[in-house]
Amino acid sequence: MKHIWISLILIVLALLGIFYGFRQPQEMADEEEDLIVIGMSQVGAESDWRVANSESMKQVFSEENGYRLLFEEARQKQENQFSAIRRFIQQQVDYIVVMPITEIGWESVLQEAKEAGIPVIVADRKMDVEDPSLITAHVGADVYAEGRKAVIWMEETFKDQPQVNIIHIQGTLDSTAQIGRTQALENGLAANPNWNLLSRMQGDFTQAKTYEVMTEYLRSVDSLPVIDVVYCENDNEAFGAVEALESFGYRCGPGGVAVISFDATREALQYCRNGKIALEVECNPLLGPLVEEVIQILESGQELPKTNYVPKEEVFTPQDITDELLEQRPY
Ligand code: GZL
Questions:
Q1: Is 309 within 8 Å of 142 (Cβ atoms)?
Q2: Do 233 and 155 fall into the same domain?
Q3: Of 3, 129, 326, 330, which is the most buried if we count CB atoms within 10 A?
Q4: pTM of the entire structure?
Q5: Residue 311: what pLDDT?
Q6: Do residues 133 and 209 both lie within one domain?
């Protein structure tokens, strides 16, 4: 009987040895430190907005705040986001946070996360999925409302002008920001018969691409058209548009081309104060605190709304931009 007890004790000890032997030192360290492990997949670093968004996430999800952040940038390729999410699943993170590059194509990788029992929080842009249970929560801005603010400003500004010539520079196609801001302009064009769309092009939210496509367009026309508005779907596109327009002799500002832009980063507000951008519609990139709030609600086991919108976003015209505003701007 005695040797049975000794054998049982030896078996239990062996099992414990195997269990602790196979566990990653990191996993044990996390457990000991009791950190919440976050696997985070970021679009890339295509814009000033995106850089500020990444900074906000890294500031919030620090070890001092009780987190281990596994942060991966996808260099604007969805397949890199898929592989990052699959790595997070293998690493058995506590939460997956994704800033998705586009809205479509996420079902299978989200299904894998669901089967692994890992909640997925979508931040900034949305994912368009049939099964809502694949996504625990979304945190982001109402980008259609942002577009509406720009359209309302255009309606007011050009209400007495018989024809308003518009160039539209879209962001990354099928991204929520592009879909919402484009839809708002589409609806504005339908509602305002004096608005004339000269050209629509893809700037992919970057300065370089926008400079390229705007230059191509201005080279392609027989004679340079009157351009009243250039509707840029983010600030880096606006920088590229201004650079191209000025290289062809256009003046951006009062009495010239009215450049409209979204994000309201500090550099863009400077352009706005100098009159080169006529209207800035804010889109807040500092989503770290909001994502953390969602995670803390989940940790406490409370219910939370599926979509959590970023609070109040401003609109700026040149006379709104003060030194104080620029100094206080966190991004
Ligand atoms: C907006 C965000 C957009 C920004 C761009 O929600 O997705 O992506 O407006 C960024 O600057 O590239």
A1: yes
A2: yes
A3: 129
A4: 0.89
A5: 77
A6: no
204 within some domain: yes
Residues 6+ apart with CB under 8 A from 54: 42, 45, 71, 73
Question: Residue 167 falls within a domain, yes or no?
Answer: yes
Q: Give the pLDDT confidence of 266-302 residue by residue, as tens digits.
A: 999 999 999 999 999 999 999 999 999 999 999 998 8
Is residue 4 predicted with pLDDT exceeding 70? no
The residues facing 169 across adjacent strands are 201, 232
Which CATH number is 49's domain given?
3.40.50.2300
- pLDDT band with cut points at 50, 70 and 90 for residue 306: confident
Look over the chain and give the mean of its residue pLDDT values, rounded to a whole number: 92
Q: What is the pLDDT of residue 133?
A: 95
- Ligand 1, CB cutoff 6 Å, lining residues: 46-47, 49-50, 124-125, 141, 143, 177, 205, 234, 262-263, 283
Residue 114 resides in a domain? yes
Element (H, E) at 54: helix 48-60
pLDDT digits (tens, 9 = 90+) for 168-180: 999 999 999 999 9
Best probe residue, ligand 1, of 50, 170, 281, 309 (max atoms within 8 Å of C-beta)? 50
Residues 95 and 242 in one domain: no
Residues 177 and 323 in one domain: yes
> Is the pLDDT assigned to residue 190 strictly greater than 90?
yes
124 Rama sector, left if φ>0, alpha if ψ -120 to 50, beta otherwise:
left
- Structural domain including 108 reads 35-139+286-300
Q: What is the best residue among 56, 174, 205, 277 to mutate for testing ligand 1's pocket, by most ligand atoms within 8 Å of CB?
A: 205
Inter-helix orientation angle 288-299/48-60, to 10°? 40
